[in-house]
TrEMBL record:
Protein's organism: Kockovaella imperatae
Protein name, as recorded: Ketoreductase domain-containing protein
Domain Ketoreductase: residue ranges: 105-321
Region (Disordered): 43-95
Lineage: Eukaryota, Fungi, Dikarya, Basidiomycota, Agaricomycotina
Basic and acidic residues biased stretches: 64-73
Database matches in InterPro entries: KR_dom, NAD(P)-bd_dom_sf, Sc_DH/Rdtase_CS, SDR_fam
Pfam families the UniProt entry points to: adh_short, adh_short_C2
SUPFAM superfamilies found in the cross-reference section: NAD(P)-binding Rossmann-fold domains
PROSITE patterns, alphabetized: ADH_SHORT
GO molecular function, one term: oxidoreductase activity, acting on NAD(P)H, oxygen as acceptor
The family this protein is said to belong to: Belongs to the short-chain dehydrogenases/reductases (SDR) family.
Keyword field: NADP, Oxidoreductase
Length: 386
């Protein structure tokens, strides 16, 4: 049977039920909510039926183009926008570079005395945030801190340093309370970059219970305590940001309203530094307790995200691959052969530098990552890809 014969055998009713949706799809313009169609969409096929192509078939699409027939001025084919619709999306009207700007907020940085923490602290100052650095060390690195202080002074930003043991709940609680309370109302605390951590190289057969506990205490319990203290302070001060589940799910406009408050100008972002080691066993590197402690950080961030994302806090983990820092320098001193083993595993053929985590950290802390929570950002030079 030829195609024409086949079509002849089909009733008009059946044919229209097939063609009408096709014609609708062919218009390339489906009705969009206002917040999804900020830019006027021009749609050639909705400018009215083409005299030759649509002539007789226009009848078939009558139901679809009804609105265009009622008012010829509606040339886009998109239904008229209601005057009271959902508000624009959280980032509407902001330029892309502006999404990465952190002015008007204070970010707490743990492990801020040196290494990754201090590098990110500098990056935050470059992006106009005030920084409150904390660390177990009584003083920050003499080599690196002056550069951060210079940026802060040049920009008129606040940079503070406090000694803090992140495994001591009372200390963490009181320090965070003080940092939140002393932040100016023009730059409230709205971010936490948690970099404090320790590593221990040891065959799994040799660990004492205390050695395992120490690693878990600093890397896992410490991550828990700083996140908890941050969330308590932030949620207490920002009750207006809480979005009830019903509000998110029900009612026109309420979803966008809630998201505006969470992702827009007022929410907070927590970034917990985990590690690629939380995903895999590092080839040739015996550090089971460390890897376990970082895997726990991945999971706790997801759980926190589930509990706090509707209260104005996004929380994600950053998982670096090998970085040349004091931590890895100590390992390499112990086992110089690691350098070669690590390089072999890197698809980029090199280890990373602290600098290479400025971008990922700022992305996660800023509104550029407004739709990201409960996720892990793996930045490992391809180590875990093979
Ligand atoms: N260097 C790497 O290759 C690498 C790779 C993946 C993940 N990481 C993670 O990145 C983070 C930063 O590592 P780094 O290489 O900059 O290490 P680092 O040793 O240079 O810095 C860690 C900081 O944490 C602080 N600290 C340790 N225990 C603390 C405690 N109880 N309370 C408060 N501060 C404490 C230290 O004093 C130090 O300043 C760590 O969480 C580490 O596990 C590092």
């Amino acid at each position: 049977m030829t195609l024409t014969a086949a079509v002849r055998g089909i009733s008009t009713r059946t044919l229209s039920s097939f063609l009408v949706p096709l014609a609708h799809r062919g218009s390339r313009c489906s009705p969009l909510p206002r917040y999804l169609s900020q830019t006027p969409i021009t749609c050639a096929s909705a400018k009215g039926p083409h005299p030759e192509r649509h002539g007789k078939k226009a009848k078939l699409t009558e139901g679809v183009a009804e609105h265009a027939k009622e008012d010829p001025s509606k040339v886009t084919g998109v239904p008229q926008e209601p005057s009271t619709g959902p508000p624009p999306p959280p980032l509407a009207g902001r330029s892309t570079p502006d999404l990465f700007n952190l002015s008007g907020r204070t970010v707490i940085v743990t492990g801020g005395a040196r290494g990754l923490g201090l590098t990110v602290a500098q990056a935050l100052l470059e992006c106009d945030a005030n920084v409150a650095a904390v660390d177990l060390l009584p003083e920050p690195s003499e080599q690196e801190w002056p550069a951060a202080r210079e940026i802060a002074e040049a920009k008129g930003l606040k940079l503070t340093y406090d000694q803090l043991d992140i495994t001591n709940q009372e200390q963490v609680k009181s320090t965070f309370h003080r940092l939140f309370s002393s932040a100016s109302s023009s730059a409230p605390v709205r971010g936490l970059f948690h970099a404090a951590g320790i590593q221990l190289l040891m065959p799994a057969l040799n660990y004492t219970a205390d050695q395992v506990r120490k690693i878990i205490d600093v890397n896992t319990t410490g991550s828990f305590l700083v996140s908890q203290a941050f969330a308590r302070e932030f949620i207490e001060r920002n009750k207006h940001l809480a979005v009830g589940a019903a509000e998110v799910l029900d009612g026109p406009g309420s979803h966008a309203d809630g998201m505006n408050r969470l992702a827009g100008d007022q929410g907070a972002s927590i970034v917990l530094t985990a590690s690629m080691s939380g995903h895999v066993a590092n080839y040739g590197l015996e550090c089971a307790a460390y890897n376990a402690s970082k895997a726990a950080v991945h999971t706790m961030a997801k759980c926190f995200a589930m509990e706090w994302s509707k209260k104005g806090i996004r929380i994600n983990t950053l998982s670096p691959g090998y970085i040349r820092t004091a931590m890895t320098a100590a390992l390499l001193e112990q086992r110089p052969d690691f350098n070669e083993t690590w390089l072999k595993g890197s698809l980029l053929g090199r280890l990373s530098t602290q600098d290479e985590f400025r971008g990922p950290a700022i992305y996660l802390l800023s509104d550029a990552s407004s739709f990201m929570t409960g996720a892990d950002l793996l930045v490992d030079g391809g180590h875990t890809a093979t």
